[in-house]
């Protein structure tokens, strides 16, 4: 197999908003409890925040983390999660059928985020609640002082406002599984009224309206058109969510899923622009792909779980090498739409469908998907360049014209570096890649990182945490204006030149 890419600094998709390397912590399973927070753990600080997990989060350089849900937020009484811990209420948590102790709450998460060098993307409950609770939490969080809610925050020990800028207007409100699910009309109305009062409290907010829960929802994309009809002038972003699985063990199709994801994004860009035209608006609607990942390994185990325990292991997918390849393809797909996707959240961050796993009282380790995310987050900042790709293609039963090569380059002008991200989707053959660097002048190779494994189903575990990990012995060479490399079958590659 042979493929080529032209990379030209004048052909720019868009500036990469670093927030596309966001992630997500939901009150679900062991994400909070025994994930980011475990008092008594050997690495915990005075607030009970696990230092080993914090170290891995910092390694990923995650710029923003969505909180507190997810489905959880549609039953969230935010007032339960602030104030003296001893007085906090234990609640039945209906989204995931557990008991929420509220021992860890809103302010603790803000503290965690500060320590992790990340911003908070906060969500309000538009399932059981609405505009009133939404305006109150914004006042509690962002108003300086002199009112009931802002002074309550100060009384709780937070003199300075949290100044959280990005807020989600509910979560997956089209889903029948959602507490307080709504029709597009009902949600559009609820969202616009919440948006208005939230911005009246703090006009600097950036708001995200819920798009469809996934591209298979029967109401997609009418949902988006109706919701935007109501909210277009009041929100900055429309959300997208999508997970993929390989339960049929058809890896060729599985690795092609990012082609579907690309179509999904194109459809939503078109839908946003349709509403823009209808409204004769000058404003461009941006996308927040605030849940994306592989999710299916844990479905069977979760279906058997008894309800009403505290922080049980839920959604604990153990990721394989092939999952890391699809995550790499999904990251490249996000970069291809850097002009419209301004935020994205790998769902989630710790234990729950996550790149970071922990054991209670034990260690923390990197899952396979940690690595493509790490590389993209660290090296994928700058300008995403138009991917001019020639690649042989394959067909599956459901997806046709799938290029063996998935690739994009990002130009970091400040550092004078170009990074080519590339996945070889072929499960049988290596792929000879040539990258034409034309406008960049003579370059030299910095490194060629490769994630490869003979076993597509290989995983990392606490006892074998380095089974799947990248090496820096890729064979790329740079000859003046051209990179040549032989990409191993089923591999993720990061080729950095200067
Ligand atoms: O991330 C797990 C769940 O997936 C979220 O709670 C929900 O929004 C989505 O369905």
Automatic annotation (TrEMBL):
Assigned keywords, A-Z: Carbohydrate metabolism, Glycosidase, Hydrolase
SMART domains registered for this protein in UniProt: Alpha-L-AF_C (SM00813)
Residue ranges the record marks as coiled coil: none
GO molecular function: alpha-L-arabinofuranosidase activity
Catalytically driven reaction(s): Hydrolysis of terminal non-reducing alpha-L-arabinofuranoside residues in alpha-L-arabinosides
InterPro entries: Alpha-L-AF_C, ASD1_cat, GH, Glyco_hydro_b
EC number: 3.2.1.55
Pfam family for this entry, one: Alpha-L-AF_C
Enzyme class per UniProt: hydrolase
Superkingdom of origin: Bacteria
GO BP of this protein: L-arabinose metabolic process; polysaccharide catabolic process
Record domain Alpha-L-arabinofuranosidase C-terminal: where: 290-491
Pathway recorded for this protein: Glycan metabolism
Subunit structure: Homohexamer; trimer of dimers.
Sequence similarity: Belongs to the glycosyl hydrolase 51 family.
PANTHER family associated with the record: ALPHA-L-ARABINOFURANOSIDASE C (PTHR43576:SF3), ALPHA-L-ARABINOFURANOSIDASE C-RELATED (PTHR43576)
Entry protein name: non-reducing end alpha-L-arabinofuranosidase
Organism listed in the record: Paenibacillus whitsoniae
Taxonomic lineage: Bacteria, Bacillati, Bacillota, Bacilli, Bacillales
